[in-house]
Write a structure and sequence with these properties.
globular; mainly alpha; DNA polymerase, domain 1; 101 residues; 0% strand
């Protein structure tokens, strides 16, 4: 028998934490920009998600956080794509300078 909470979760889709790299802190930040389930996240461009997170939630996010977001979209561990993800973000956001990780 389903409870009211499990039925609500089923309607919303898979948890964000079902995605690679997404833990409770990142899940909380994503929810602050209206991304509440894995399907919401997977419909979005990860570079735009990161830019929105920096603008609206945490301007100190570093390239490791970017790799975490991109890796969640690709299903890859963040540490394998940090440099490539940072290069792509820099192409999309010329003049961006990374702070310390």
């Amino acid at each position: 028998m389903k409870t009211a909470n499990s039925a609500a979760r089923a309607r919303k889709g898979r948890s964000l934490r079902a995605l690679a790299n997404i833990g409770p802190v990142t899940e909380s930040k994503l929810k602050r920009i209206g991304i509440c389930c894995a399907e919401d996240f997977l419909r979005r461009d990860p570079y735009q998600v990161f830019a929105e997170l920096r603008q609206k939630v945490d301007p100190t996010l570093c390239r490791c956080a970017l790799a975490l977001i991109v890796g969640a979209k690709l299903g890859q561990p963040w540490h394998r794509i940090t440099k490539a993800a940072a290069r792509e973000y820099e192409k999309r956001h010329p003049g961006h300078e990374w702070g310390p990780c």
